[in-house]
Amino acid sequence: MKTRLDRNRLRQIFVVLLLLVAATTAHAGTVSGVVRNGTNSNKPAAGVDVLLIELQGGMQTVASTKTDAEGRYRFDSTAIGAAPMLIRAVYRGMNFHQPLISGAPTVDVTVYEPTTNPQALQIAMRLLVFQPNGEKLLVGEEYSIQNDSNPPAAYYKQDGDFEFTTPQGAQLGQVSTVGPSGMPVTQGTIDKGKGRYAIAYVFQPGKNVVRLSYVVPYTGNQASLREASSYDAQRVLLVIPPTMQISSPGFNAAGMEQGFNVFSKESVKAGTGFDVSISGTAPPPSEASGAPDQTNGRDSGPGPTVETAPARLGDEKWILLGGLAAIFAVGVGLLLRRPAPAVPSAPPPASPSSGPKGRKAQRAAQAQAKTKSAAMPAPLAEKVDQEVNTNLDSLKDTLLRIELRRQAGTISEEEYARERGRAEQLLRDLVQG
């Protein structure tokens, strides 16, 4: 049965392939689309600045235009298809992005009216992952943030709309965000002093993610950290390799994920903070690289990274990302795990010796199956769609981890080629339905 795949999720998958697998072979072409106002009943937005941006070698504006009275725009450029690109719509000082998929002739962008009401955002989960690296402890954090504003609006403040605090002595690394389109965007930070930072990011309606990393001293294979809580969080997770020990009041063991130990605490209030004592060493490289590559996590944010500020950790970011990329997806997977759907078996092919009666019976059976499929109850069809989308998200995570492991040197070229080929075949199967 051919399912109704979510177009945005398919776009995210293709973006991963275009950038991570380097399979872009499209020719120069044209892209057009419509910019709509999601706050104003998705009506066309006229007079909006639209930019065609090339991501290779940093953000380069290739062309610009304005939408007409019907919200339409169009670009004709020899650069289209030659490198990863995105479409940016600038509305009321806010940037809204959509990836330009190689070969896609149409890219629509939704913009929203701004709001400065902090009640628009809810922190569903905060995830902290710890990974030793000699005399340093690498820490990766992920905030899963929901914007359920009604009517839908984009939460944005130019002087900073999301704040966080790093522990004493920490060296801040990269900060990035992922919006509903699934496109990671590296963010510049606003230094507020004493370890406090802010970013000015457009939180669109739906799910948004903020990721950050930092390094703290890890003398004698141990460290004690004071983690601040700038916002109410419905749930906080601590994740460590099995060779490490961790202690934090109020956190309870929540099992293992991807071979890592997970500790959980419900409902952490803003301003409370919590202490973390951690010790131990990193797993041997062979053990870390042999970890299973299976996850049902959602929205780990693969796709093109828009560089708006230089990374500060240099080569160390690959140690962090290579060891922890899967865990960022695990945090959401703990909340959104679903069983795999049963796959209906296909009818056996007709025997070559089948006569007209056999072929007639086969056609009748196929027609009956088609009728049953068309009559499938809507809830069941929605469930199948949901499961397929989950598989697409899992595949995105797999592709990202394969590339990060290659960057980190924890996967052989032979294994890399084998795993990448397997992921590409799964993608083709899913896209074909």
Describe it for me?
This protein is an alpha+beta fold and 433 residues long. It has two domains: 27-111, Carboxypeptidase-like, regulatory domain (Immunoglobulin-like), CATH 2.60.40.1120; 118-336, Sandwich (Immunoglobulin-like), CATH 2.60.40. It contains six helices and 25 strands. It has helices at 7-20, 285-289, 316-336, 356-374, 378-408, 413-432; strands at 29-37, 43-44, 49-54, 60-66, 72-77, 85-91, 94-100, 109-111, 114-115, 121-133, 136-147, 154-155, 162-165, 171-178, 184-186, 190-193, 196-199, 206-217, 222-227, 233-240, 244-247, 252-257, 260-268, 274-280, 306-307. The strands form six sheets. The chain has a nine-stranded mixed β-sheet with strand order 22-23-20-10-11-18-14-15-25, with helices on one face. Strands 1, 2, 5 and 8 form a four-stranded mixed β-sheet that branches. Strands 4-3-6-7 form a four-stranded antiparallel β-sheet. Helix 1 (7-20) packs parallel to helix 5 (378-408), helix 3 packs antiparallel against helix 5 and helix 5 runs antiparallel to helix 6. The chain is globular, with a radius of gyration of 24 Å.
Labels describing this entry:
6 helices, disordered N terminus, 2 domains, 25% helix, alpha+beta, four-stranded mixed sheet, 35% strand, Immunoglobulin-like
What's the SSE blueprint?
Blueprint: H1 7-20, E1 29-37, E2 43-44, E3 49-54, E4 60-66, E5 72-77, E6 85-91, E7 94-100, E8 109-111, E9 114-115, E10 121-133, E11 136-147, E12 154-155, E13 162-165, E14 171-178, E15 184-186, E16 190-193, E17 196-199, E18 206-217, E19 222-227, E20 233-240, E21 244-247, E22 252-257, E23 260-268, E24 274-280, H2 285-289, E25 306-307, H3 316-336, H4 356-374, H5 378-408, H6 413-432
Parallel strand pairs: 1-8, 9-12, 10-20, 15-25
Antiparallel strand pairs: 1-2, 1-5, 3-4, 3-6, 6-7, 10-11, 11-18, 13-17, 14-15, 14-18, 16-17, 19-24, 20-23, 21-24, 22-23
Helix pairs in contact: 1-5, 3-5, 5-6
